Amino acid sequence: MAYGTATIAPVNKIVGPGNLYVTAAKILVSDECGIDMPAGPTEITVTSETGNAAGIAADLVAQAEHDPEALAVLITTNAELAASVAAEVKAQAKGNPAAQQSLAAQGCIFVTNTVTEAQELTNRLAPEHLTVDTTADLKWVQNAGSVFVGAYTPQSMGDYISGPNHVLPTGRVGRIRGGLSVMDFVKVITVQQYTRKGLKEMGPHAIALAEAEGLIGHAQSVRVRMR
User: Are 24 and 46 in contact (CB under 8 A)?
Assistant: First the structure.
């Protein structure tokens, strides 16, 4: 698609979900055509103080089974909740080799000293999928692909039912953009036009800036039109 064939012209942009291989390919061709984002292996972070251990564990296992490279993280200050989730994950992952593999390699539980630290760590991770306890938590969320709120919003509902799309930033790309949207298919072209009166009024400012930079050609291109 990026390079074209004998009968198919190269495309201008490639978008869509992927994995490690698709992400590598997108990055490889990104100097030939546009891409939406590196959308690599699934990521889940649950940042919770009061969540249900069984529900949190179920989400961690569900997203972990996507890919051996999936990242599954719980962040909390509640050591009791952390221990309960760890036990639930172990129990629920039985009989699920794919989830067991990724959880063993990339499954993490962070017990922070403060809620603020938990929030800061979450934003540093900029996870693809993020679950929080209540809508009040949305005030501190700055970096995430898609946010799931409360005990009754399993991430699988976003995968299959409620999700606005299934192409979300991974690898901390959530720091700089959100998920695939209509804006990825829109190109903005700016247009400007001065009248004679407008140029006479604003032109001197452009001339002053151009001359301050030593760009006499820029200044002259304005000046010749002001005569």
Answer: no
